Fold each of these.
Amino acid sequence: MLRVSDLSKHYKTGDEALRGVSFEVPAGQVVALIGPSGSGKSTLIRCINRLVKPTSGRVELNGTDITRLGRGGLRRARRHMGMIFQEYALVERLTVMENVLSGRLGYVSFWRSFFRRFPRRDVDKAFALLERVGLSDQVDKRASALSGGQRQRVGIARALEQDPELLLVDEPTASLDPKTARQIMRLITEVCRERDLPAIISLHDVPLAKMFADRIIGLRAGEIVFDGAPKALTDAKLTDIYGEEDWTQIHDGEDAEQAGAHGLSEAHAKEERMAGLK
């Protein structure tokens, strides 16, 4: 369980990035965080894992108050928070396996990590995770040779290698084409449900958020202006979050996606019927 209570972030310039943000995320729930640029989405994620220190408020993960921890306690707490970045944050010259194993750096000694001598159980887990994300045939390939979708899959495997209690995801689809973006969102939501893992995913793509998230939180000017189920995100609520706009294109895109999915299902059923006749 993640509990955020009255969280605020004020900068020395006088800017208020967050204003009294409060919400809870239970185990297994996938929350999409939406809002215009500058609304505080990335700041909120970075305050939760203390990459940015909040001005006031509390962040509690399974009873541990992250905002009150010292350096050593914070380092230990971050072991339990998997982070997936927009720009992947991989070490380009390292292999896929080495990048995934870097998720264990908080658990092994300096010399073990320096010589890349990880315990056998960590290596076995990394192999299993790479198979789960569809990269079992890319183990020894350098990260620099991967496509954007493959890099993001490595990032997912690396985060899961930590055995996290919370997944924080910052714009995971921003650099991907539409098909790959859906595949990555589907993978993230599937692994969260398999592991009963809560997740907060910052997204600019509203249709993706409505398609895959269990719940949507909308931020505007550092405040929560919507918190509810995807089906409750009406045109009026979108206007509250983003301002006045014609939202019909979003709905048209959703209808097209649903029609496409239905068409694929029909085609698959037809193939099965034809196979049965042979």
Amino acid sequence: MILAEGGPPALEAVLLWGGAITVVSGLLAGLWRLGRGVVRTAHRMNEFMDDWYGEPARAGVPARPGVLERVAGMESRLGRMEHELHPNAGGSLRDAVDEANRRLTHLCPDPDTPDRRPPAGS
């Protein structure tokens, strides 16, 4: 950038250095913001990985299981509850629900069920 002929050389130097400082400052500020974003993202990824894989116990802090260990624990608990969903010799939850339904049907019969409808000619 050159000023019109006859301008003071000191003004040209000030404008040149001012522009250079502004450009360098802008680049540094942009790099600073980019660096902060990268550091924040890296920190979040580190937290995610700690949650995913879990953390071993350390002094005063119990161990935290990872996601895959938690899923395996849920699968084993579901396997233990599986027997409650099928009828057996009367000890499952399914047997208890079936017995309650049978008693309720006996106490409060539904008149619209096929076996309780009045004969067609009455």
